[in-house]
Amino acid sequence: MTETYRLVIGGELTDAASGETFDSIDPSTGEAFAAVAKGGSEDADRAVRAARQAFDEGPWPKMKGRERAQYLLKVADLVKQNAGALAELEARDGGHTIRMAKGADIGMVISTFRVFAELAGREDDERPLPRSPASTNWMRHEPIGVCAAVTPWNFPIQMAAWKIAPAIAAGNTVVIKPASYTAITTIELGRLCQEAGIPEGVVNVLPGSGAAAGESLVASPMVDKVAFTGSTEVGRRIMQLASANVTKCTLELGGKSAAIVLDDVDLDYALDGTLWGVFFHNGQVCSAGTRLLVDRKIHDDFVAELAKQAGAIRTGPALDPASDAGPIVSKTQLETVERYVAIGREEGADVLAGGDRAMVEGHDGGFYYQPTILGGVRNEMKVAQEEIFGPVLVVIPFEDEADAVRIANDSIYGLAGGVWSGDNARAVRVAEQLRTGTVWINDWHMINPRYPFGGYKQSGLGREHGEIGFDEYREVKHIHVDLGGQARARHPWWDLTVPKRESPAAPGPEAAGSKPGG
Ligand code: NAD
Question: Which of 159, 173, 396, 517 could form a disulfide with 55 if both were Cys (CB 3.0 to 4.6 A apart)?
Answer without folding.
Answer: 173
